Amino acid sequence: MDARAILARLRDGATLSRDELTWFARGLASGEVSDAQAGAFAMAAVLNGLGPEGRVALTLAMRDTGEVMRWSLPGPVIDKHSTGGIGDSVSLILAPALAALGAYVPMVSGRGLGHTGGTLDKLESIPGLGTELDEARFHQVVGEVGCAIVSASDRVAPADKRLYAIRDVTSTVESIDLITASILSKKLAAGLQGLVLDVKVGSGAFMARMEDALALAESLVSTANGAGCATSALITDMNQPCISSLGNALEVMEVMEVLTGGDASSRIAELSCALGGELMVLANMAETRDEGAAQLAEVIRDGSAADRFGRMIAAQGGPGDFVEHWADRLPAAPVVLDVTADRTGFVSAMNGRALGEAVVHLGGGRLVGGQRIDPSVGLSRVAALGEPVQPGEPLARVHAANLAAGEAAAQTVREAIVIGEVAPEVPPLIHRSVLP
To answer: Does 35 fall in a domain?
Structure first.
């Protein structure tokens, strides 16, 4: 085989075989395929598609260019993936809650991307905690605690890493086939037996339209199951944040309020339990999603999830007493400003992307690759959709490193949160399920 022949077939609309896609993925990882050929492949895939079988073949081929974990544990090995949103800290609740019920969750997560926050950045606001564990230590923590949340090794799906970088500079990121293979090649390298996908839709998501979110969810679910991993998805609402805080330490604070307060009724806890309930069905730990969700709600209420979270934090280098003293361990911004309503009405809409960008410009995200972030900055007490407000009542609180940055963020928040005269119809937290 050679790259030119494969590219010619894809260009002409042919369906590539598994052997051809495997050869091409190996060439991406080894360098035998040039940057120009990789760019041509990405563009042809955008224009002509790979088809359902091609998506499965490319996913497995890219997964197998790197390390694939193997587990021998007395419970199911399961995980969750989110397509990204604002105030989305589900992983920090769901991983320890599942571990408290006997599952094992080797969660390989990412950093902030664009206007969305990253799970690793949130965790690293905890002093001393490390997310770069070698494979032996990762296995040890998962085996002993039941969960670990870490960054991906360079040895995981190297073909995808190279192809993604080329897609980023060739206007070929927006391909459901390539997005699907990229997400799943890395997730399936963790050796999972079950996976639930949280596909976000709305103003704070990458997929603002339902038809786009549904197409991605269906592609991910069919491809993952075709690759041998039991998978389902929930399409969830991102027209407002999952929690009332946006920013790394601020989101951890709100997570700790849920875990240590045993509040399983909050929006973030409800979403965590629904996603976890799906996973428990896939892993034969529950008959229905509602049954699994109820079990997860109970370990949040009784403190078992908080205990697992604390053990995970300590195992990854954080404070051993974090659960007991989290309020004293997390950084706080020196400038705090309230953004208030200027008229009577209801919170009728919000621009989630703009709110996320406000956090990025405060220093809570990255404007350029490798930029150091400030874990203390962000927004808290963000008003919920449908909430009634009066003049002078808070819409959000800005946490900033200095007054100028805080005032700029406050102006963005004022423009992003719309006050209307009539209470809006608030979208449901979960729009629909996508099952195998």
So the answer is: yes
Residue 55 annotated among the catalytic residues of the structure: no
Q: Which of 55, 63, 81, 308 is catalytic?
A: 81
**Does residue 425 form part of some domain?**
no
- Which amino acid would we find at residue 342? D
Per-residue pLDDT reduced to its tens digit, 24-64 = 999 999 999 999 999 999 999 999 999 999 999 999 999 99
Domain span including residue 217: 78-325
Does 350 lie in the same domain as 267? no
Our count of domains for the chain comes to: 3
Please tell me whether residues 411 and 386 are part of one structural domain: yes
Cβ-contact 273, 291 below 8 angstroms: no
**Amino acid making up residue 13:** G
Choosing from 22, 119, 151, 185, the catalytic residue is 119
**Cα dihedral value 414, 416, 419, 420, nearest 10:** 150
The answer to whether 17 is a known catalytic residue is no
For residue 80, the tally of other CB atoms under 10 A from its CB is: 24
Over the stretch 164-211, which tens digit does the pLDDT of each residue have?
889 878 888 878 999 999 999 999 999 999 999 999 999 888 788 999
Active site residue 177: no
DSSP secondary structure letter of residue 367: S
What's the CA gap between 78 and 80, in Å, rounded? 7
Residue 67 and residue 157: Cα distance in Å, rounded? 7
Phi, psi angle pair for 338, to nearest 5°: -95, 135
Q: Which of 47-56, 107-116, 202-211, 375-384 has the lowest mean pLDDT?
A: 107-116
- Residues contacting 292, CB < 8 A, separation 6+: 273, 276, 277, 278, 279, 280, 281, 285, 286
Q: Measuring CA to CA, which residue among 309, 386, 294, 355 is closest to residue 97? A: 309
Assess whether 186 carries a catalytic annotation: yes
Q: Are residues 193 and 134 part of one domain?
A: yes
| CA pair distance 42, 36, nearest whole angstrom | 10
